[in-house]
Write a structure and sequence with these properties.
Blueprint (H helix, E strand, L loop, with lengths): L3 H4 L2 H6 L4 H13 L1 H22 L8 H11 L8 H16 L1 E3 L5 E3 H28 L3
Antiparallel strand pairs: 1-2
Length: 141
């Protein structure tokens, strides 16, 4: 038997949204269809559990308010200088001062980025040279 017509109306039935004729028709079907009756029982059980859960009183974990207050105290006030803000402002000023290098295709790259890449490459070469010197010194003759 195809019960899809009645299964689609179970939520409306529980919510009291069906008319008298539809309720009578559905109740008649439920009286002889164990599948739909079981579906209605599960639906009612689920709705009861959800209703009880919504009434449960939830308490925050111990120390929650203190942790929130401590975290809020560490946050910068509006307009207050933070290290991140200062660094951002310095880098913006550096961009304005040094300018940008044009690249093919109409793109540009900030001079500070080129300088940063150069410093990083130099540091890498220094570390590589130190590593090679140590391996030569440790090599048995």
């Amino acid at each position: 038997m195809d019960c899809s017509y009645f299964c689609e109306r179970l939520n409306q039935y529980v919510d009291g949204e069906l008319g008298y004729l539809d309720v009578a028709e559905l109740q008649g079907h439920l009286s002889f269809c164990p599948h739909c009756a079981a579906e209605l029982a599960q639906l009612s059980e689920l709705r009861g559990a959800l209703a009880a859960w919504g009434e449960a009183e939830l308490a925050p974990p111990p120390g929650f308010a203190e942790r929130v207050a401590a975290a809020a105290a560490l946050e910068a006030k509006p307009g207050e200088a933070t290290l991140e803000r200062v660094v951002h402002d310095v880098l913006d000023t550096l961009d304005e001062t040094l300018g940008r290098i044009p690249l093919p295709g109409g793109r540009t790259i900030p001079v500070k980025n080129v300088l940063g890449y150069g410093i990083a490459a130099t540091a890498l070469l220094i570390q590589l040279e130190r590593y090679l010197r140590r391996t030569r010194e440790l090599k048995p003759s």
